[in-house]
Structure formats: C-alpha cells, structure tokens
Amino acid sequence: MLLLLSLTGCVMRGCTSSKPPVHLNPNMDWQPKVQAQEASDFFYDGSGMRQPIPGTVALDDIIEETPADTGKDAAGAFVASSPVPVDDALLARGNERYTIYCAPCHTASGNGQGILYQRGKVPTADLASDKVRTMPDGQIFDVITNGSGLMPGYRWPVGAHDRWAIVAHVRELQAKRPVEPAAAAAATAATPPAGAAQ
Q1: Domain boundaries 82-177, corresponding CATH code
Q2: Residue 61 has what pLDDT?
Q3: What is the distance in angstroms between the CA of the first residue and the CA of the last residue of the chain?
Q4: In the beta sheet, which residues pair with residue 72?
Q5: Which residues pair with 39 in a beta bridge?
Q6: Stated pTM of the model
Q7: Are 162 and 93 in contact (CB under 8 A)?
Q8: Angstrom distance (rounded) from CA 152 to CA 116
Q9: 104-125 pLDDT per residue, tens
Q10: Cα distance between residue 118 and residue 138, in whole Å
C-alpha cells in the first residue's frame, strides 16, 4: 500500500491541475495589509497611505550641503575656520555637548586620558597635540561627524550646529593649554626672522 502511494506521488508530481492548490496555512499568501495607493474606509480621506509628518525629510532626498553642514568648501577642502559665529552662547553649548559626548574619553581638559585609557590603555587623541592644533576647523568637524579610528561618528546624535559648538570648545581648550615644546620649536624654526627676504 505504501509503495502504491509513493508511486502515485511520483506520477502526479509533474501533472497540472485545474483545481487551486491546497493551502494549509494561507496567512503568508493573503496577508491583511494595505498596499501602496490602496483605498481605505478606515481613514477620513479614504486613502490607505498616510501623509508624511510636516517637516519630514527623506534620507535619499537631495539636500543642498553648505560648509556649515559638511565642514568642506565647494572644492571639497576642509574649511579653515568655523562658518558659525563664535560667541558666549556657542561656547557654553559646546562645553555642554563636549561634557556629554567627548569628555568621557578625552577628559574635561582634552588630554586623552579618559576612561578608555585608564581601564584599557586605549590610545585616545590629546586635543592639544600638534596634530589636532594644526587641523582646520572643518577637519575637526568632520572627525566629530564621521569618527576616526576607534572613535564613532556623532552625525546623528549631535546636530551640525552643536558639532561646530564642540569645535569652538576644543579651540578654547587648546588656548588654555600651553603649546608643547616640540611644537613651539617647530613653529619658531618655520617663522622667518624679521626683515628676511620672503
């Protein structure tokens, strides 16, 4: 009997039928959902699709990007100085955002000896180092935006204006810390004496 049933299955497998197939669980074939552009009696306007919330911007929409958004000029080079005017309010905001997002790793003074270094000896940038001091403001903004090395990017949690505020605060921290002796010597060697031919 079992042999006959198995042979019947082999014979019937490639045959067509005018009857619809048996669906033991039709939930995946006929899902209760609203298709795009489908009408709906549920909503007052008769449309199943909802309008976007006012002010919504799709991620793939083309947005005009300015130096204040990217830290770069039209040629793609980092801007030398912040396009956002630096005032007391911006510095206060930068201090607040820096304390939240940057100080745990870079410390309040920016020396890079934060929790990652203390507990795991993870090298963290000293914000008063030659490398960071000589960076254009746009490059510091870009590092905050996209991250660098083990540092994550803060594009989404920190808005562009707040990132410029952090850049202003970093420059303020650098002004409070003396220039390293090697950096001072290099700067002196690079500066020509007064009256020298240019």
Answers
A1: 1.10.760.10
A2: 61
A3: 105
A4: 78
A5: 47
A6: 0.63
A7: yes
A8: 13
A9: 999 999 999 999 899 988 889 9
A10: 30
Structure tokens at 125: 């940038």
* C-beta separation of 165 from 102 below 8 A: no
What is the C-alpha to C-alpha distance for residues 168 and 162, in angstroms, rounded to an integer?
Answer: 10
Average pLDDT estimate for 84-89: 96
Cβ proximity of 163 and 153 under 8 Å: no
CA distance 83 to 138: 9
For residue 151, what are the β-bridge partners?
A: 148
Residue written as token pair 């005018």: 18
Residue 145 contacts residue 155 (beta carbons within 8 Å): yes
Exposure pattern of 63-100 as b/e (b: 16+ CB <10 Å)? Answer: eeeebeebbbeeeeebbeebebebeeebeebbbebbee
Extract the tokens encoding 45.
Answer: 């306007």
Residues 6+ apart with CB under 8 A from 105: 112, 114, 115, 116, 117, 124, 151
CA nearest neighbour of 95 among 166, 38, 25, 1: 166
- For residue 87, the Cα-to-chain-centroid distance in whole angstroms is 26
Whole-angstrom distance, CA of residue 163 vs CA of residue 140: 9
